[in-house]
């Protein structure tokens, strides 16, 4: 009965249509029908250009493009050199050449922030972290991409698949544009030939996913045009590339039902890959079908996954960047080829662009590390950190014709690649999205409050489809470019416990955990049941244009008879107050968690709990009060380093860490505050960045003052109704 109930919950989470699509895929895959159908298309002869493009010779394919007959964002990257040199300066130019040189030496970039020795051409079937290998002949239909893999087999498959996305071709193209060094196009073509020989169409593990196939279509297309006029780009090599594009587009279309059932970034990638193959390679016999189906699937993905307010429903800022990159790629190519797409694609792209702009810090260019982060940056065309969203903002401002006050900088480079002379900065009087912050809809589930320099994001979502993280009422806090209270990120999807998507749980987010339980019931690494629903509003307390206060609550602990209500207020630019009321009855263990940057800290003896975090720009005083006695601890890198909470080993292991990108784990500071008491309980956090601000407790009130003048007063008593007491 318990298993039947769980299955019913899972069915409800996925929905009837998606369940049917997924079931059909699994039946074909599990029965061997899919494998037989895929293999029935034959070997290399099925992708011979004499069969798939009978009217064209290899020379025709190359010469037509060199003569501008199949336009792209640019025609040969060398023509961009003067613009790129102006953007980058000598230091930026040297950095790009150095990265390309490292690639030729076999050190490939991974997930935007890491690098591993893979050889060149890369060892396509080897995990560079563990040294484990997957057999090149292992049928991909026998593998489960979404379900994870045994570490005893070949480790996390994402590390094996990453080089096959060919993202390393973008740094090679950039270096070639700047230097004209023929080693770079020759390296790309050697890698393509090696990959094709090692992984023939429909054969082996690298064909496991339509999304991976589609991302290769984009990278290979970019490389073709970047190296179009190089002597290394021969008719025979172009013919090989087109035959592989055809195989990848065909493979992607075969499992489009699976991508549709996922209702995630997979569908965007596959739609854009198909549309790109159909648009750029009309010589191929199925090009018309790919373009039509790609446009249809892209419209479906946009309408299904991006709300009219611009929120991407996978609840991930990194995936929203990935989706926007694909939308901007398509919109710009459709403009170049004079292809009319459904108007709603552009409309929702603009909404998504404006939404993400509200949560990019104007000083650092970074956004909260919110939601799943698998290290994707499919257009790595800027000399900026992986976490910098300014390249996206500049590119979007040019393609979508949205003004921005973003100054010129290295983030201008992607717009130059995709837009040419159109990629000049658009003048504007305000930061992207800033003018509409005061008018943002409370229905988005995301709230920004504060000022341009000191601001917070609060998560308070109402789910209509399956959530990916249990993070209701999480708070990200930013102060003059420093992400002061932060999200831990993802690290790994497929590691050993607790690193099997372990950072998706409530314990590591900046919220309150009750009785050491997640806000929702975990039924798998990517599946949550008993969804926690939240509501809230951001508003101004002083008639300013921007909200400075948030009030909201969630019901994730209703099964325990507990409600969590939270208030977040920017009292001044240097003072934040967060009030957590835990309402209900009976005794419960309450654990408030804050994840802070790995900075020097000092715990101040006495009551209430106080700690000082020291940065080069300021000292941050962190005070925690509660209506019932509490205890505290500081955990760094999975080890308790201060405080009086006796944490269990399994509790400590996952705390005090953050993951800036996939596969990277860095120490951080977890501040825990624990109360064991009958409800109702109020916990108050006060963060101060100004030494002139003084905080004192007077009876049951907290009083904040500056120069003996009261600035703010708050009661420490938790108030609840008779209904909330149960």
Q: Strands of the biggest beta sheet: in what spatial order? A: 10-11-12-13-23-17-16-15
Low-confidence stretches: 146-151, 433-439
CATH architecture of the largest domain: Distorted Sandwich
Q: How many alpha or pi helices?
A: 19
CATH class of the largest domain: Mainly Beta
User: What's the oligomerization state?
Assistant: single chain
Q: How many domains comprise the coordinates?
A: 3
Q: Any idea of the CATH topology of the largest domain?
A: Beta-galactosidase, Chain A, domain 5
Secondary structure category: alpha+beta
| Global outline | globular
Largest beta-sheet characterization: 8 strands, antiparallel
Helix content: 25-40%
Termini Cα gap: 29 Å
Map the helices and strands.
Elements: H1 2-14, H2 16-31, H3 33-39, H4 49-52, H5 58-66, H6 81-104, E1 107-110, E2 114-117, H7 157-161, H8 169-179, H9 183-198, H10 210-226, H11 235-254, H12 256-262, H13 265-280, H14 287-305, H15 317-336, H16 343-357, H17 390-399, H18 413-419, E3 446-450, E4 454-459, E5 475-479, E6 482-485, E7 512-514, E8 521-524, E9 527-529, E10 534-539, E11 549-554, E12 562-572, E13 575-584, E14 587-596, E15 601-604, E16 609-614, E17 619-626, E18 630-636, E19 639-643, H19 649-653, E20 657-658, E21 666-667, E22 669-678, E23 681-688, E24 693-698, E25 701-706, E26 709-715
Helix pairs in contact: 2-12, 5-11, 6-8, 8-9, 8-10, 9-11, 10-11, 10-13, 11-13, 12-13, 13-14, 13-15, 14-16, 15-16, 15-17, 17-18
């Amino acid at each position: 009965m318990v298993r039947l109930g769980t299955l019913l919950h899972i069915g409800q989470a996925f929905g009837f249509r998606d369940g049917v699509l997924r079931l059909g895929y699994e039946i074909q895959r599990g029965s061997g029908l899919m494998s037989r159908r895929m293999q029935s298309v034959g070997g290399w002869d099925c992708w011979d250009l004499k069969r798939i493009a009978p009217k064209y010779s290899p020379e025709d394919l190359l010469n037509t493009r060199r003569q501008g007959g199949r336009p792209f964002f640019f025609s040969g990257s060398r023509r961009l050199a003067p613009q790129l040199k102006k953007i980058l300066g000598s230091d930026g130019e040297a950095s790009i050449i150095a990265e390309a040189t490292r690639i030729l030496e076999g050190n490939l970039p991974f997930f935007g922030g890491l690098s591993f020795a893979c050889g060149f051409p890369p060892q396509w079937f080897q995990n560079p972290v563990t040294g484990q290998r997957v057999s090149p002949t292992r049928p991909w239909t026998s593998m489960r991409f979404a379900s994870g893999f045994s570490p005893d087999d070949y480790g996390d498959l994402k590390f094996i698949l990453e080089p096959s996305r060919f993202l390393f071709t973008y740094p090679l193209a950039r270096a070639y544009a700047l230097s004209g060094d023929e080693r770079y196009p020759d390296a790309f073509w050697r890698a393509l030939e090696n990959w094709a020989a090692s992984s023939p169409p429909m054969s082996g593990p690298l064909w496991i996913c339509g999304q991976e196939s589609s991302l290769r279509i984009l990278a290979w297309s970019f490389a073709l045009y970047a190296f179009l006029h190089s002597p290394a780009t021969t008719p025979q090599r172009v013919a090989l590339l087109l035959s592989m594009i055809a195989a990848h587009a065909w493979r992607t279309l075969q499992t489009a039902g699976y991508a549709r059932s996922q209702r995630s970034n997979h569908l965007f990638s596959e739609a854009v890959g198909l549309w790109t193959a159909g648009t750029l390679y009309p010589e191929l016999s199925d090009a018309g079908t790919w373009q039509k189906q790609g446009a249809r699937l892209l419209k479906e993905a946009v309408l299904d996954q991006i709300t009219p307010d611009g929120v991407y429903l996978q609840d991930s800022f990194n995936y929203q960047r990935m989706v926007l990159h694909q939308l901007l790629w398509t919109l710009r190519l459709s403009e170049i080829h004079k292809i009319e797409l459904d108007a709603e694609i552009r409309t929702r792209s603009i909404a998504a662009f404006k939404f993400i702009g509200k949560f990019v810090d104007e000083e650092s260019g970074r956004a909260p590390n919110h939601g799943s982060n698998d290290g994707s940056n499919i257009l790595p065309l800027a000399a900026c950190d992986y976490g910098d969203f300014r390249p996206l903002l500049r590119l979007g401002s040019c393609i979508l014709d949205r003004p921005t006050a973003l100054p010129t900088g290295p983030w201008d480079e992607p717009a130059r690649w995709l837009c040419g002379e159109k990629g000049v900065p658009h003048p504007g009087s305000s930061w992207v999205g800033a003018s509409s912050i005061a008018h943002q809809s409370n229905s988005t589930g995301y709230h920004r409050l504060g000022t341009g320099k000191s601001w917070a994001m609060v998560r308070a979502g109402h789910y209509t489809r399956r959530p990916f993280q249990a993070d209701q009422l999480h708070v990200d806090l930013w102060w003059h470019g420093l992400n002061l209270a932060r999200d831990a990120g993802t690290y790994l999807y497929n590691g050993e416990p607790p690193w099997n998507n372990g950072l998706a749980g409530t314990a590591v987010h900046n919220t309150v955990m009750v009785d050491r339980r997640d806000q929702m019931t975990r039924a798998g690494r990517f599946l949550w049941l008993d969804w926690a629903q939240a509501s809230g509003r951001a508003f101004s307390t002083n008639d300013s244009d921007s909200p400075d206060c948030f009030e909201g609550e969630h019901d994730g602990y209703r099964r325990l008879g507990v409600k969590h209500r939270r208030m977040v207020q920017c009292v001044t630019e240097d003072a934040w107050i967060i009030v957590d009321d835990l309402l209900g009855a009976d005794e419960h263990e309450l654990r408030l968690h804050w994840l802070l940057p790995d900075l020097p800290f000092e715990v101040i003896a006495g009551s209430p709990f106080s700690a000082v975090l020291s940065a080069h720009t300021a000292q941050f005083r962190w005070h925690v009060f509660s209506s019932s006695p509490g205890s505290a601890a500081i955990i760094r890198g999975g080890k308790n380093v201060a405080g009086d909470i006796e944490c269990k080993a399994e509790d400590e292991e996952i705390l005090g860490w953050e993951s800036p990108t996939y596969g990277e784990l860095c120490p951080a500071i977890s501040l825990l505050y624990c109360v064991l008491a009958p409800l109702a309980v109020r916990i108050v956090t006060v963060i101060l960045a100004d030494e002139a601000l003084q905080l004192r407790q007077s009876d049951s009130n907290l009083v904040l003052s500056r120069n003996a003048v009261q600035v703010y007063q708050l009661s420490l008593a938790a108030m609840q109704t008779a209904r909330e007491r149960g």
